[in-house]
Amino acid sequence: MNMIPLIKKDFRLFLKSKSAVALTYLVPMILILIFGAVFGGFGKSEGINDIKVLLVDDDKTGFSSKFHSLLDSLEEITIHTKHKVNDENILFDVQTMDEWIQAGKRKLGIYIPSGFEQKINDGEKIPLEIHYDPKFNIEYSIINGVIQKTIMENFPQIIFGGMMNKVNNFLGNEKGEHFQDDIDNVVRRYFPIPEKQEDIFAPESSNFQMMENPIELESVQLLGKEEENVMFVQYVAGMAVMFLLFSVTYGGATLLNEKHNGTINRLLIAPVKRSEILLSKMLYISILGFSQLIVLFIFGWLVFGLNIFKDVPSLLVMIIVTALACSSMGIFIASICKNQQQVGSISTLLILGMSALGGSMFPSFFMPKYIQTIGKFTLNHWAMKGITDIFWYNKHIADIFPSVLILIGITVVFSFIAIRLFNKRLME
Amino acid sequence: MIELKDVSKNYGEIKALQNVSLKIEKGELFGLLGPNGAGKTTMINVINTFLPFDNGDVFINNLSIKDNQREIKQKIGIIPQEIALYEELSAYENLKFWGEIYELSGKDLKNRCNDILKLVGLYDRRNDTLKKYSGGMKRRINIAAGLLHNPEIILMDEPTVGVDPQSRNFIFGMIEHLNTTGKTIIYTTHYMEEAERLCKRIAIMDHGKIIASGTKEELFKLLEEENNITIIFKNDFDFENFQITFSKYQLTQVDDKTIIFSGSNIIENLSEIILIIKKMEIEIKEIDFAKPNLEKLFLKLTGRELRDE
């Protein structure tokens, strides 16, 4: 078995090339740093059209139903209250809703707790919860705004009723009635919402805050709570996979170099099998890719506090299958090219294209639906899905199995084609 | 030791080897001479198991290369025409790698690397990357990499292409030294001077065929009947008078002062010819012997210069 000297030789050559080492480790680190810093704090989200929102109504009163149907009538969102179990439509409960969001099936949900209407009538704050995946901050903000707007526009009388109760409690019934008369005059004049509310309603030098937000909206972040920088996983994984593709393609191109300078022929004359030459090259590229991903994730941990210890076995599995899939892709690209220049131009086009479509450069949920669908045909998509599933959705090996399986499939198919093409090319 | 029996190899329409049969004994330094494209490299690649052939068989130590490739590969050291090394690695790292490929390891590998580096005269520069080497120095490491595993048979495919005279002489010395240690060497070249200097037996190839083979003496004999002597006189001479006097020779007048004597055994009869000319009281300015060489033999056999192509 002559594969070990072949692999050692490749690593020796790799380490002697400063530019290759920099391209493999340093450049992606710098880009991760830049992208992470630029986008990391923002929180990214999908487009703003037709956000699918789950809704659980535990209050089941006329007011909660009206609130539900008002939300449902809005163009920006589609409300789902039921899911199918054994062909039967069943209402969501909070636990199922949370499970759906955690599994990435929906981005957020609204929970109307029991006592919703009662609290409004009592003049207390309206209790509402938004359960969400913090990756979708924009959707969260939109839904938050939509809820406030819906209540303010459609139920001002209830809000005022509640407010009057508060006034009476605070001032006493007699003073409260005078105050209510004044308010009525103002409200009649400016209904539904007076313009400068604070000026009219908020008495000076008082801790009475009648016009404080009448909705007690509680946000329940379901995922990624421990990540300091919620978008950072996206950029570590994205940049890592993209640069992995570049570095493995460079590794694949060394086969063409070796053919060009005659060392492959010399190896074929030596007691080395052709399969050993190709397999050792693939193994070298895979090990290189594995080390690159490991280094970049450690970098993410050290610099951005990315919790890489969340599920080490699953992460390692993803890193291994991603490295293997990228290696097979790199060897494949090299196998369809005749020289290194061709590898350079084809790989740039292919890798940048795949990275853009597959979500390595920008989160795929930024993109239109049809682009997201096309993106599913890229290696990047499945690599990133597996990795973000671990970090975001707390998924484990069994859960990321589809991504793992697809990446293994990519490895097998591209390796098979590449080996066949190279076998043919080596003898030309 | 090495035997080719009716070996043929075609590349599509091109007949690279046509029914080549050849026997090379153990310890021989055998030359394959021919112009570019004659089939020398193809023959080397067939012997070293790199190229499958269409017909015939090749035997190394009576083992067919069809069935015993791994074993035969260990016995062969190849010095390819191109410098097939890793320029980014040092000479030592290159040799270590090729040694490992031939399953050398540990102290043995280290000693072999150092010995070979001394043999090729580059031990002091063993840690320099090949990038810093001259063409001749790279050639020497190229040779060293083929010798590292101490092969019984060494196949050298034009190992002096593009080499400066100093390195060429160094390489020649090394080849002669290797031959004295009992190695069997096949040396391909299109330089007849190299084949004449190094090789005891030579096969001349053209268009995939061996058109002549044997020792240098045997090959030169094929040219003997073509021997001739060119004589230049100080003054004009009477060609007709010469034709009468030297009727048993074939004469050609080149100009008023130059004549060519041709025929078998002409060299042996030179003293007699000179004596007769003296008696004719014609003063000789210059005598030129056309010495036989492989270039002339190739010209005779093919009608083309050896370096036409």
Chain-wise SSE layout:
The complex is a heterodimer of chains A (428) and B (309).
Chain A: H1 3-16, H2 18-40, E1 51-57, H3 62-72, E2 77-80, E3 82-85, E4 88-91, H4 94-102, E5 108-112, H5 116-121, E6 126-132, H6 137-154, H7 156-171, H8 173-190, H9 197-201, E7 215-221, H10 232-260, H11 263-269, H12 274-304, H13 312-336, H14 340-358, H15 369-375, H16 379-392, H17 401-426
Parallel strand pairs in A: 1-2, 1-5, 6-7
Antiparallel strand pairs in A: 3-4, 5-6
Helix pairs in contact in A: 1-12, 2-10, 2-12, 7-8, 10-12, 10-13, 10-14, 10-16, 12-13, 13-14, 13-16, 13-17, 14-15, 14-16, 16-17
Chain B: E1 2-11, E2 14-24, E3 29-33, H1 40-47, E4 55-60, E5 63-64, H2 69-75, E6 76-79, H3 91-101, H4 106-119, H5 135-147, E7 153-157, H6 165-180, E8 184-189, H7 192-198, E9 201-206, E10 209-215, H8 216-221, E11 228-233, H9 239-245, E12 250-255, E13 258-262, H10 270-279, E14 284-289, H11 294-302
Helix pairs in contact in B: 3-4, 3-5, 5-6
Distance between the termini of chain B: 32 Å
Structural class of chain A: alpha/beta
Range of strand content of chain A = 5-15%
Give me the side-by-side strand order of the main sheet of chain B: 6-7-8-3-9-10
Sheet with the most strands: spatial strand order of chain A: 2-1-5-6-7
Q: What distance lies between the first and last C-alpha atoms of chain A, to the nearest angstrom?
A: 25 Å
Helix content estimate of chain A = 55-70%
Detailed description of the structure:
The complex is a heterodimer of chains A (428) and B (309). Chain A is an alpha/beta fold. Helices cover 65% and strands 9% of the residues of chain A. Chain A has 17 helices and seven strands. In chain A, the strands form two sheets. A five-stranded mixed β-sheet of chain A has the order 2-1-5-6-7, with helices on both faces. In chain A, helix 13 (312-336) runs parallel beside helix 17. Chain B has eleven helices and 14 strands. Chain B is 35% helix and 28% strand. In chain B, helix 3 (91-101) packs across helix 4 (106-119). Chain B starts with a strand and ends in a 7-residue tail after the last helix. The A-B interface holds A 2, 4-6, 8-9, 12-13, 16-17, 261-263, 265-272 and B 45, 48-50, 70, 73-74, 76, 78, 80, 82-89, 93, 97-98, 100-103, 129, 145.
